[in-house]
Amino acid sequence: MPSLREIIDSFKVKSETVISKGNILQVVYNDKLVMLKLDGATNSRISKGSVYTGGYWDYFIPIVYAYRNPSVLMIGLGIGTTPYQLHKIFGKGLKLDIVEYDPNVVKLARKYAPGGIKDRIVVADGAEYVANTKKKYDIIILDAYGSGARIPRQFYDREFIRSARGALKADGTMAINYAMHPYGILKFIGYKIHLKEKFRVFSVKVNNASDNQIILCSRRLGKNELMWRMRKMAGVDTESRQLAGAYAKMRKL
After folding, report:
1. What are the residue ranges of helices labelled H in the chain?
2. 23 lies in some domain
3. Core-most of 2, 154, 217, 242, by most CB within 10 Å?
């Protein structure tokens, strides 16, 4: 049994702070977890004792079950939460490209993410990458946030939505982390209209403690086929069954 001193020490954290592109990036870490904070707000985190975080990052996992050996484009790296999770669960069958705008975020993730980041990383604007890439992906995960917990404006544009559809395979899906705070709510009506011009659009509610939703934008798959494809997930572990339950309640927008 650990001593009181060992328990106390386990909660002690170290940190590294970098000023980059006008933002304060701070990595906070100990033996249990690592977090990246952007201007004081938690941007991403990894629990070293579990593949799951209890946060919205977990809700990207189910869509990957819908594809066999999928090719995935991740826009927005953070500390590497989603790459860490996906590789732990899906192993070498997963092909992952990452686009991150801030080179200092890349440096911090390579330094502090457990096991490091071994995927291909492109330092670029995610919208520009999607507009110019010749690759076709099964899944695009959009988890790009700037200061004030706002999605950068280029990802709201019709041009990005058109490009994202073009960068997906015929049955591909884009998954967007969308925060329903006042600014997000204000932008959402117009954003939903633009997304529905190019995709079949669904919403998955993250746990009740969060104001986040995962917006699923599928080129052709409906709810029933998505759920059928994700059927293997429900038998993996308790967390996966809970995530499967959240997806079963997805609603069409």
Report:
1. 4-10, 61-64, 81-90, 103-112, 126-132, 158-167, 182-198, 223-229, 238-248
2. no
3. 217
Q: Is residue 31 a part of any domain in this protein?
A: no
Residue numbers of the domain that contains 216: 50-252
C-alpha 198/C-alpha 158 separation (Å) is: 9
What's 179's domain CATH number?
Answer: 3.40.50.150
Give 2's strand partners.
none
- On whether residue 22 sits in a domain, the answer given is no
Q: How does the average pLDDT of the chain come out, rounded?
A: 92
Q: Which residue pairs from 25-33 have beta carbons closer than 8 angstroms and sit at least 24 positions apart in sequence? A: 25/102, 25/104, 25/105, 25/108, 27/79, 27/108, 27/111, 27/112, 29/112
The answer to the question of residue 40 being in a domain is no
- 249 near 243, Cβ under 8 Å? no
Q: Per the structure, how many domains does the chain have?
A: 1
**Tens of pLDDT along 86-109?**
999 998 889 999 999 999 999 999
The model's pLDDT over 179-207, given as tens digits with 9 standing for 90+, comes to 988 888 999 999 999 999 999 999 999 98
Residue 91 structure tokens = 């192993």
